[in-house]
Amino acid sequence: MKIVLKNRLLVGTAVLTLATGGLYGCSDFLDKNAIPQGSLDPTTLANKAGVEGTLIGAYRSLDCTPTTQANWGCAASNWVWGGVAADDAYKGSDSGDQPPINDIEGYNWGTGNAELYLNVKWRTVYEGVVRSNATLNLLKAVRTADPTQFSVADGNGAEGEAIFLRAHYHFEAWRMWGNIPYYREADTDFNKPNEASAAVVTDILKDLDSAVKLLGPAPRNGQKGRPSSWTAKAYKGRVQVYAGQYAAAILTLQDVRNNGPYGLETSFDKVWSGFQSNTNGPETIWAYQASANDGEPNGENANFGERLNFPYSGSHFGCCGFNQPSQNLVNFYKVDALGLPLALSSATWNASDAQFQAGDMTPVDPRVDYTVGRNGVPYKDWGPVKVTTGSDSWVRDIGNGGPYTPKKNAHEKASGAESGSGWQNTQLNSVNIHLYRYADLLLLLAEAMVETNDLAGATTIVNQIRTRAGATAQGPGTGASDIAVALIPDPANPLLRTNPASITWAKYEIGLYPVFTSQAQARAAVRAERRLELAMEGQRFFDLRRYGLADATAAISGYINGIGGGQEKTRRTYKQFAVAFAAKHMLYPIPQTQIDLSKPGGTGASTLTQNTGW
Predict the structure, then answer these.
(1) Average pLDDT over the chain, rounded to whole?
(2) How would you write 256-310 as a 3-class SS string?
(3) Per-residue pLDDT tens for 292-322?
(4) How far, in Å, CA of 194 to CA of 272, rounded?
(5) Is residue 85, in this structure, part of any structural domain at all?
(6) Burial category of 113 from C-beta neighbours within 10 Å (exposed 0-12, middle 13-18, buried 19 and up)
(7) In a 3-state reduction of DSSP, which class is residue 357?
(8) Do the beta carbons of residue 239 and residue 204 sit within 8 Å?
(9) Residues 378, 481: one domain?
(10) 229 and 314 belong to one structural domain
(11) Are residues 190 and 118 in the same domain?
(12) Considering the chain, what percentage of its residues have pLDDT values greater than 70?
């Protein structure tokens, strides 16, 4: 991973971390290399360049590489865990490709197939933890041996980055498993038992507080892929909302909102984009810095974790048709006469099983066509999507994955972001993967306001998000200048925006809310807005869990068995075999492989304890 696009120096230093098998626990390093190519001992690494290279290695665990992981359970976006496991997406492709995801989608998480993906996710986040701690230990040794190697500010910055990364990786593990071991740089016992979920939260917040103090107000060296003190503070507020610490979260997030460097992009098309001018814009709080055409011969610094999630062979991209948006999600973008979510006012919002395609003038939120590829609708600037039963179809198997394709992760044709090398290079690009963006922060703040009964404050934030969403819609896409076109005010309703005459394939409408009148109404509106804004970004399942068992169960059960007049088990018949969502699904099972490995000396009782119900 690189910190800033096209910074070759930082790419080159990443190789320093690959040879330090003792530091990173890469026990099969020599097994996979019949002729060792050399190694770096601690003395060689004990300098500023060694520390910086080791730190870059810690960043690299944010996303997959084929040399360290066996499947897409490690994708930075969590598309398997946060999207396919929720109501946003189907696995897609066909039933025989990546079969472990079938079990994850069907809530059969205790199977050997599901274990394959769960174990990759566990290995990835704890690899990141170990690399972060290795950086901290090496930094301490270098600063002790030769204080001139780092200035105080630079040394503190490197320390703060490593601590922030450690907090991020533990947060990823906590969102998945809740009760996890927490490792710091002084730990030598790598068979630590799980901490209770609440204790993990305390540890994450402690690390984030340390990062806030150590980091400067701007990213070190001006490289925006590095966290600043504002990044750490924003992340702290995120953790506080997840933990239900609403009053504390409001104080934290209000500070970031009022005094921090972030803001919404002017239009939604700039949020997920391959254009370099849109990279690391004001909305980016924390992102995996994907990089293509940087000298890596296989394109592995690019968006490797997303490379399955492109339209199929009839399209320019050629493969692979995974992570297809669900019918439920597409229906969720329909709006009422006021341009507000139909799902909040109609008992039949989800009744249609028909493919929603170009020419259907049912009013919809304009974000649908920035999020979902639909038949006949322009796909950024690649021309209209084509969904047929022939070889020219952009969808691999309509019966298995439905007629829609993911869109946010795709690059624009005119952007130059496509990789020139690597397997199926047309799917590799330098579109950054947002791990946390400002719209997400604002909606977390709105959520905390609702839970503390500040309904006016929550209304203001939701309408701010919707105002930005109403700025533009997918345009004809015949060139870079018309990928997005401006929406226009409705003369009959100043709170409503709609599309100009140049858009002939859809009816886009989006309106604003009057001040919420009850906590229940506000809660429903904020939650709906999170889905509309963050769909297909790997957040949905974690949101449903955060809302509580009753809400998560109702959403997942309703999705499969019938909600809003429609049920997925008749749309995608394999869903009739899904296991009923229950309390145990509020946490993923800890991989049995990791439990078995946690026996001290390989014998006796395991120190890791399985989550309840698994």
Answers:
(1) 92
(2) HHHHCCCCCCCCHHHCCCCCHHHCCCCCEEEEECCCCCCCCCCCCCCCHHHCCCC
(3) 999 999 999 999 999 999 999 999 999 999 9
(4) 37
(5) yes
(6) middle
(7) coil
(8) yes
(9) yes
(10) no
(11) yes
(12) 93
> Residues 540, 592: one domain?
no
pLDDT at 304: 92
Any domain includes 607: no
Residues 412 and 532 in one domain: yes
Q: Does a structural domain hold residue 308? A: yes
pLDDT classification of 324: cutoffs 50, 70, 90? very high
Please tell me the total count of domains within the chain.
2
CA-closest candidate to residue 252, choices 201, 209, 193: 209
**Inside any domain, residue 330:** yes
CA distance 482 to 381: 8
User: Residue 28: which pLDDT band, with cuts at 50, 70 and 90?
Assistant: very low
Q: Exposed, middle or buried, 112 (CB in 10 Å: 0-12/13-18/19+)?
A: exposed
Q: Which stretches within 196-342 are classed as H helix?
A: 197-214, 229-242, 246-259, 327-332
Q: Mark whether 379 and 498 lie in a shared domain.
A: yes
Q: Cβ distance 165 to 128 under 8 Å?
A: yes
Question: What single letter denotes the amino acid at residue 353?
Answer: D
Q: Are residues 230 and 334 in the same domain?
A: no
For the segment 430-449, the average pLDDT, to the nearest whole number, is 98
Domain that holds residue 19: 8-250+588-602
Amino acid identity of residue 411, one-letter, is: H
In the block, residue with structure tokens 């002939």: 504
User: Element (H or E) spanning 324, and its range?
Assistant: strand 322-325
Q: Are 73 and 157 in the same domain?
A: yes
DSSP state of 194: P
Length in residues, the chain: 614
Single-letter residue type at 185: E
The CATH number for 405's domain is: 1.25.40.390
Q: What are the tokens at 282?
A: 């004001």
Q: Write the burial class of residue 41 (CB in 10 Å: 0-12 exposed, 13-18 middle, 19+ buried).
A: exposed
